[in-house]
Amino acid sequence: MPSPIVCSESWHDTTVVVSCAGPVDMVTAPDLQHVISAALKKQPTAMIVDLTDTELLASYGMSVLVETHERLVPDVPLVVVADGPITRRPLELVGLASVLTIRPDLGAAFDELRGAQD
To answer: Does any domain span residue 46?
Structure first.
């Protein structure tokens, strides 16, 4: 049976964008972790995790984001694209909005990275 989640990476110069569509939960979070790990081996200067098409963000998915943040900071900035009740709200409820850099869309995420480089 195929995984209900589709994760992919795309590159914008030396910034990698990891996008996920579908539920990020106990079953699928390892797929997200695998794509993130593969992207990190290519040594990006920044990473964006785009949860725009994510249908569910469970605690396992949040754990992947925290682990990624801990691996990267301070060398490689991480920005999470999350907006609305499915993705941003859970991150706020568990207090991760104060730990992770969260922006509502890809444009704002790239703006954040540009601002960090100035």
So the answer is: yes
Residue 1 within any structural domain of the chain: no
d(CA 52, CA 50): 6
* Paired sense of beta strands 6-12 and 15-24, if any: antiparallel
Query: One digit per residue, pLDDT tens: the chain, 118 residues?
Result: 567 889 999 999 999 999 999 999 999 999 999 999 999 999 999 999 999 999 999 999 999 999 999 999 688 999 999 999 999 999 999 999 999 999 999 999 999 999 866 5
Domain-embedded: residue 47: yes
Domain tally, the chain: 1
What's the predicted TM-score (pTM) here? 0.94
